[in-house]
Every structure is written in structure tokens, then in C-alpha cells.
Amino acid sequence: MDVLEAIYGMRATRIYQDKPIPEYELTRILQAATRACSAGNTQPWEFVLVTDKEVKTQLKAIMTKAFEPIAAKRSQKPEDLIDNAGRPVTGHAAIENMDVVAAIVLAFWNPDRGIRLKGEYEENADGTLTQTGGFQNGRGSSIYPACQNMMIAAQAQGISSLFTTFFGLAEPEVKELLNVPPRMFLEAGIFLGYGAEQLNRPIRKRLADVVHLNSWDGAYAPHPDAVIRLPGA
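Now predict its structure.
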């Protein structure tokens, strides 16, 4: 499909069919990730592709345990945590489907690739690193575009996806399970697979409601002929 159609039609999918993704299509998705821009072209990403059923089941157990204290502390009831289409907005449905989804890609930031942030970390006794200088959230500026590329490439091939950072709730356990070196930073996880939930067209705010022209008080009027109309819109 057209790249804009892929972007406009993407939905966060949490429930999946138990159906593998052909290796050819997985390769195209991962290759798209590596075509993203990065700070100083350092290409600091490292990806762990998980397709093994047993590993996914172990990840599910880790994340189920990690979510228990969060659910206990929340003041909202489950019925309050839904979007305007009636879908849950928490990660519970995704975790429940973790052993079913075709693939999970864990995205890591490699601090040893490139020169921009060298000297801004302290190594701890356990081999992990603590960032001491620079932009604390700067890692995502290189990793997140690669993740978005993955999701767009997947959508273009009829494959659903979900972007999440909830693996960070259990980063040590996830890294231990996947034999990831302590120095690597776990930034995000991408679910890839064939959706098993009925999703309507995306509901998004109008450009005029979120774009300000030249100043916060400036009104922006989008060109009417440039708006893509999806089926059902």
C-alpha cells in the first residue's frame, strides 16, 4: 500500500492470531528499522527478535508479575481505563497475548556505538551503566524512529503491530532471559503479528486542533485536497 495509507491506517493491536510471519516479510520489516536516521549516524540500535514460543511464554510470566503491583496501586477501576471505542488502554491484553503474537522485537540502545555520549556514563558493579550527563531521554531520538519504521513496514505488508515501553518495568529480568549484556539499555518493544480483534478506523484529532501556525495563537488551515480519506472515514 501507499506509505501514507500505511501510516494513516495503523492501529495499536493487542490481540493476535497464533500465526507466524513469513521470514521474508520479517526481514523486510527489520531492514526498514535499520534505515532510520540516528544521532550522528551512530546507528546505536540492537534488536532481539523473539519468535520462539517458550521464550515468549517466559516473557509473559515476567511481565504478568511486573504488572501486579501497578494494578494494585491504580485508583481507577478496569472499566475506567478504556478508550472512546471501548478498548482497554492498559497493557494487560497485550501481555495476555504475548505467547500468541508471531514476533516480539526488543529494541536496545548500545552506548558503545558512536562517540557523542562517551564519558557520560558510570559503570556499576553489576556491569550496568548509569547515565550521568547529556540528555537523559536522548537515546530514544535514535531508537524510536527505527521502531516506527518497523511498524510502517509491517502495516504496508498487512501485519499489525504494537509499540510499548512496558518491558522497562522488568528490564533486569528481560535482559537476563535474553542474555543481553548489562551495558545495553532496553528502550522499547514491538509486537508484530496478525490481529485478532476488530478495529475501526483510527480516530484522531483534527490538524486545526493541534497545529499552531507561526505562534501558539496562530490558526492552521489544512489543505482540503491533501487529507487522505480511509475506507469508512
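Residues 3-205 form a domain with the NADH Oxidase fold (CATH 3.40.109.10).
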